[in-house]
Amino acid sequence: MRNKLLRIYGHGHLHFITFSCHRRQKLLGTARARNLFVQVLGEVRNRHQFSLVGYVVMPEHVHLLIAEPRKGNPSKTIQALKQSVSRRLRNNSRRKGAPNQLRLGFAVTETGAHFWQRRFYDFNVWSDEKKREKLQYMHFNPLKRGLVRDPKDWPCSIYGFYAGHNHGLLKIDSP
């Protein structure tokens, strides 16, 4: 039996959420895949009505800093986001190759193809200090992973917004 994860909702906290691609495969390894993720994130944000304070999309995982949604809870929101992204990327991948071929490297099992690991990490951010810590972590994640020399060079993050360079691919809500 699986351990029940403790999720604390309803206190008005921000949530620092992390989730990974199946077996940490680089399924978001292309700019096209990351841009599609950001586009779907914007759509899910509008549908579930939550504030987006920060994000970074890495080749094999994602970090989000969000407020609790007006519709549902963070678990339902992340479920909708993950399903929408995997469905759209899977459909785009099939159109470009053979009809039954999954070109992104999905793990195929008896239950179908997997894009995401099942669970996600959720940390309640209860103070401004913790919020700054999580934003800084997101800003420097691409640099730490050796993907860029400067955080401003990674387009699928909110660094540019907070540094005043640009607003990035998706508008950030006032923190």
For the record, the CATH architecture of the domain at 14-126 stands as 2-Layer Sandwich
The oligomeric state of the chains shown is single chain
For the record, give the distance between the C-alpha atoms at the N and C termini, rounded to a whole number.
39 Å
Tell me the series of helices and strands, N- to C-terminal.
EHEEHEEEHH
| Extended strand count | 6
What is the CA-atom radius of gyration, in angstroms? 16 Å
Mean pLDDT, nearest integer? 84
How would you summarize this macromolecular structure in one to three sentences?
By secondary structure, this protein is α+β, with helices and mostly antiparallel strands. The protein has helices at residues 31-48, 74-96, 128-144, 159-163; strands at 14-20, 52-57, 61-67, 107-109, 112-114, 121-125. It has a domain at 14-126: Transposase IS200-like (Alpha-Beta Plaits, 2-Layer Sandwich).
Task: Quickly list its features.
alpha+beta; Alpha-Beta Plaits; two-stranded antiparallel sheet; 18% strand
Task: Give an account of the 3D structure.
The chain is of the alpha+beta class and 175 residues long. It has a domain at 14-126: 2-Layer Sandwich (Alpha-Beta Plaits), CATH 3.30.70.1290. 36% of the residues lie in helices and 18% in strands. The chain contains four helices and six strands; from the N terminus they run βαββαβββαα. It has helices at residues 31-48, 74-96, 128-144, 159-163; strands at residues 14-20, 52-57, 61-67, 107-109, 112-114, 121-125. It has a four-stranded antiparallel β-sheet, sandwiched between helices. Helix 1 packs antiparallel against helix 2 (74-96). It is globular, with a radius of gyration of 16 Å. The relative contact order is 0.21.
